[in-house]
Amino acid sequence: MLELVQQVQANCQIATAGQVGYYSLCGMLLRLRQLYKWERGLQPWQEGDPQEVLAWIAQQEEAWNALRATELQDLRWQDQRWDPFAVAELNTIVATEGLAYGAGFTHGMAPMCFLGELWETEQRYGLTILTLGQELARDMDAAPALRQGAVIYLRTEPLAFYLWDHLADPTKQNNIYFKVALAARGLEPAAWLQKPEHYEHSFRAMLAAQGEALIRHEIGEALEPTLQSVLPEIVQRLPHSKVERWVRALKDALADLNDWGRLAHIMERRDLPELALLLAWRPGFYPYLMPELEPAFWDLQKTRDWEVIETARQAALQRLRQTARELEQEWAALAEAETDILQCTLEQRFIRPLGL
Q: Which of 155, 179, 201 is at the close of a domain?
């Protein structure tokens, strides 16, 4: 098995070389920092020596330059040769060793792959959910949760890094929703950040809650009936555009809002900290896509009546599904348009009304 781990990690190096350039400088440095911690076996809140980290990054850059034009290599195991994207077949093999494997494409259609300990397998709504523990091979991307067809991966090790970086982000410390989330768990941000090792139990509890929230998001995405065909077409025709980012955000918002998704899960549990974190960590277009949630949250704070959240969820879901249907109609009508005209039309129709 060690030989297979080494082969997957070699492919992870190739994948990372292909991912470089698709992130902002800040985003890339954040992911590199997490990758360094993983390689060194550090806890999320532990930091490496700055000089050592810089030297490590320089070494990585040299390796990436040599691999930039290289494709993922076939994997050899048990006298057989496997395409690195033959995920189902490879998972059948590595499951006997208590492992799970994933491979596919991430931002900019760059390849990605990983291999980790398989903690749990479960079935929900016809979907297979694989929960991974310690990872034996990974690249820079390391999304905490992802779906490939009917398989959902929850990667708890990358999730721990992701969660800590959000908790420790100085730009988020004064976010009112973040403060509500921690206060609801009896935590004070300054004390948490000063001695995180003293609060590891609370961190692990938040990690478990975030993990289930991400699983429900992926389930919501898998079962959401809208955008199934139009999203891949937009990604292909308008990559890295504002339209692509908006459509991805629309897809994520629908996954959080629908009857199988994250907000429905929060409603089932009456989980105030998770609701507050959903509002605290809304990226990009999110605040503009779900404006109903903020006033509903403050109504909940006053009344303790969770029905205000359900009303807001239903209203936002109906509105965004209508937006998705209108996008599908507009896309079909513009199928033969030139790319520049297509992009400009969609921006004017859907993004500018948001005030962006």
A: 155
